[in-house]
Write a structure and sequence with these properties.
mainly alpha, four-stranded mixed beta sheet, 14 helices, metal-binding, protease, hydrolase
């Protein structure tokens, strides 16, 4: 059984690397061609950033592979002996914290390089070492408290319930839904400051737009994203009374009010179409499948690994194999997400104006240094949003046949009349 899992994980790893190689080769050629949606210099910079980021991801994938081999052959046995763990619930929690800690230490150099070298070089990150350390302390404290409770409950189920994988799924699915409820109002404010949008014509227009689609929310808030990052974004999150619309302060600085309303219209499209519930449903299917398959691994696997089948080891093995199983679902989840994004774009263009949404998307691409092209295979697997050129084309603007050097307002002479 161990050999089969090793082969499957090897195939999974090399497929990921192959897709990355195809993406790097594609962008390397395209970034030297005629620019789209930005100046030639910015186009080349965006392509170079995408390539460097993908190469870093490839290195991380290789490290993950070797770490998997190490865990499956000697790592679990080493951790068990080091922590002197047994089959009790408390010892399972200790084992899981040890497993997570090793993964954190191994992955930390990649995160530091991404944040303080790559993103700093291209003007994205504004995070200081002090702010980074504070964020890590907050995250660690929250994980130890809440993660410890979840680990304890899950380990207790493994030890005491025969069909533990089913009740383990119920536990984690419930936790995931609860996180969606409390994230906007309890978790997110721990890391960022959320300021209610000031009374203005923009706020009046936003509230009118929200009322028009029947959205009763906790309010519209501005997030101080600029203290960490320069990229533009907005999102709609939460369930029940915790629902709120969040606009990044970086977005408000770069977009006009009409463009902001169009972006908000897109987010309201997700609300109107029930996309949050769809995403929760898909997450539930993935989670159930994961518990069903990985929660019924044969005892012979652990014998081959030379370890006892304790609660901590079983849960850690599930976590170790989850990326493999998730990868199988990735194209399906990405395809559904892209479909939802097209529908939200249509909704947003009708609510906030097609021209305004097109203009906003073009600014997002330029300000976020997002390379507008992708290898089809890479987009098929990983793109939760359609490539921006396809989104624009769906809205009536074909960048491949239009002059990108025209003034921003001038692009619309090529579009059919209307919003």
């Amino acid at each position: 059984m161990l050999e089969i899992i090793m082969v499957l994980f090897t195939v999974y790893t090399f497929l990921k690397l192959y897709i990355s190689v195809m993406q790097i080769g594609y962008i390397s050629e395209e970034k030297n061609k005629e620019a789209m949606l930005m100046s030639q210099d910015k186009y080349a910079i965006a392509g170079t950033y995408a390539i460097k980021k993908e190469r870093l991801g490839m290195l991380s994938t290789l490290v993950d592979y070797f770490m998997f081999v190490w865990w499956a052959t000697i790592g679990f046995a080493w951790l068990t002996a080091t922590l002197q763990t047994d089959s009790s619930v408390v010892e399972a929690v200790v084992f899981l914290f040890g497993f997570i800690a090793v993964g954190f230490v191994i992955g930390l150099p990649f995160e530091l390089y991404q944040t303080f070298k790559l993103d700093k070089e291209y003007g994205f990150t504004k995070t200081t070492p002090k702010l980074y350390v504070i964020d890590q302390i907050k995250s660690t404290v929250m994980f130890v408290i809440f993660g410890g409770v979840i680990f304890y409950a899950l380990a207790w189920i493994v030890v005491n319930v025969e069909s533990w994988w089913l009740w383990g799924f119920v536990l984690l699915f419930t936790v995931a839904v609860l996180i969606n409820v409390i994230y906007p109002t309890i978790i997110a404010p721990i890391f960022n400051k959320f300021t209610p949008l000031e009374e203005s014509e923009l706020k009046t227009d936003i509230e009118s737009m929200m009322n028009g689609v029947g959205l009763k929310s906790d309010g519209v808030f501005v997030l101080d994203a600029s203290k960490r990052d320069s990229r533009l974004n907005a999102y709609f999150g939460g369930l029940g009374k915790s629902k709120r619309v969040v606009l990044f302060d970086t977005l408000m600085e770069k977009l006009t009010n009409k463009e902001l309303l169009a972006v908000l219209g897109h987010e309201l499209g997700h609300f109107s179409h029930g996309d949050i519930w769809k995403n929760i449903g898909m997450m539930g299917v993935l989670l159930f499948s994961s518990f069903f398959i990985l929660g019924n691994l044969p005892a012979t696997l652990f014998i081959e690994m030379g370890i006892e089948k304790t609660a901590g080891v079983e849960i850690a093995m599930m976590m170790l194999l989850l990326p493999l199983l998730s990868f199988i679902f990735t194209p399906i989840l990405s395809s559904v997400s892209r479909h939802n994004e097209y529908a939200a774009d249509k909704f947003g263009s009708e609510l906030g104006g097609k021209r305004n949404l097109i203009s906003a998307l073009m600014k997002l691409v330029e300000e976020n240094k997002s390379f507008p092209k992708s290898h089809p295979m890479y987009a098929f697997f990983y793109y939760t949003h359609p490539p921006v050129l396809e989104r624009l084309k769906e809205l009536g603007y074909d960048a491949s046949t239009m002059n990108e050097e025209l003034p921003r307002d001038g692009i619309f002479q090529f579009m059919d009349d209307g919003k």
